[in-house]
Amino acid sequence: MPVQSSGQLPLPIFREPRFAEVDFRLASSNAEACAWLRRTEEWPSHRLALWGEAGRGKTHLLHIWAGRTRGQICRGPDLFGLPAQPTAGLALDDADAVADEAALLHLLNAAGEAGLPVLLAARSPPARWRVRLPDLTSRLRAITAVEIGPPEDELLRSLLARLLADRQLRLPETVQEWLVRRLPRSAAAVGDAVKRLDAAALDRHRTITARFAAEVLHDILALDEISGTGVSLSREGEALL
Predict the structure, then answer these.
(1) Strand, coil or helix: what is 22?
(2) Contact 70, 88 (CB under 8 A)
(3) Which one, of 154, 197, 179, 202, lies nearest residue 7 by Cα?
(4) Residue 1: is its pLDDT beyond 50?
(5) What are the CA-CA distances from residue 137 to residues 120, 140, 141 (Å)?
(6) From CA 79, how far away is CA 155, in angstroms rounded?
(7) 69: burial class by Cβ within 10 Å (0-12, 13-18, 19+)?
């Protein structure tokens, strides 16, 4: 059953993403990518691509790498020319959504001539991108691509705990585990769920229980049963109410 709003607007806090290295959680799903980022000098042709679905930490890793190397961060949709006088590495986020293929080709060529490393992040490996320029196609196919896999339960638990702490939300561990088992398996989904639970709890002046979470997140949770009169939780879920 959808939660009814009281009309109270929550304060706009905790909205900025945090990309500090201390906030990143190492797991088997991202271990290979992290290892490559520590060995920039070993990248074939000074280029590397991180790929995987949204919410797997690609942008976070780009910021970590740029901070270590004093590199410059750009976004594919905003790329319309070579960044001004790059003197260190270049990190291009959403690289598969580049607005100007010629600009990307020029960036790769210029960085190659200057011996500068280039780190790309996208939802698919560069070899699969649909580009029109033959020269760009050949360069993209030659880039080493490392996948970031879906997060494991332990990583989701750690992320959920941190996001709850950021918003000063206290949930029993049993409710947190209930959420981890039923939320879509992505960091983006966990972040969206915490945001929605925080707003709904403030709006309704409610404590977050499993039943309340089921009402607020009914459209994304994997629930055992959904009846016409509301959400029917499993015995395991009922024990958390």
Answers:
(1) helix
(2) yes
(3) 202
(4) no
(5) 15, 5, 6
(6) 33
(7) middle
Helices (H), the chain: 31-37, 58-69, 101-114, 134-141, 153-166, 173-182, 187-204, 210-216, 235-238
**N residues, the chain:** 241
Which residues have CB under 8 Å from 100's CB, separation 6+? 79, 80, 81
The C-alpha atoms of residue 184 and residue 169 are separated, in whole angstroms, by 20
Which DSSP string corresponds to 45-110?
Answer: GGEEEEE-STTSSHHHHHHHHHHHHT-EEEEGGG-SSPPSS--S-EEEETGGG-S-HHHHHHHHHH
Collapsing DSSP states into helix, strand and coil, what is residue 120? strand
Residue with tokens 């992040």: 121
**Strand, helix or coil at 226?**
strand
Task: Tell whether the torsion through CA atoms of 11, 17, 20 and 21 is positive or negative.
Answer: positive
Whether the per-residue pLDDT at 222 is higher than 80: the answer is: no
Q: What is the pTM of this model?
A: 0.72
User: Does residue 130 sit in helix, strand or coil?
Assistant: coil
Sign of CA dihedral 202, 19, 102, 136: negative
The predicted-structure confidence for 190-208, as pLDDT tens digits, reads as follows: 989 999 999 999 999 999 9
Q: Which residues pair with 231 in a beta bridge?
A: 226
Residues 226, 232: contact at Cβ < 8 Å?
Answer: yes
For domain 30-147, the CATH class is alpha beta
187 with 159: CB under 8 angstroms? yes
2 Cβ contact partners less than 8 Å away, ≥ 6 residues apart: 215, 218
Domain boundaries, the chain: 30-147, 153-238
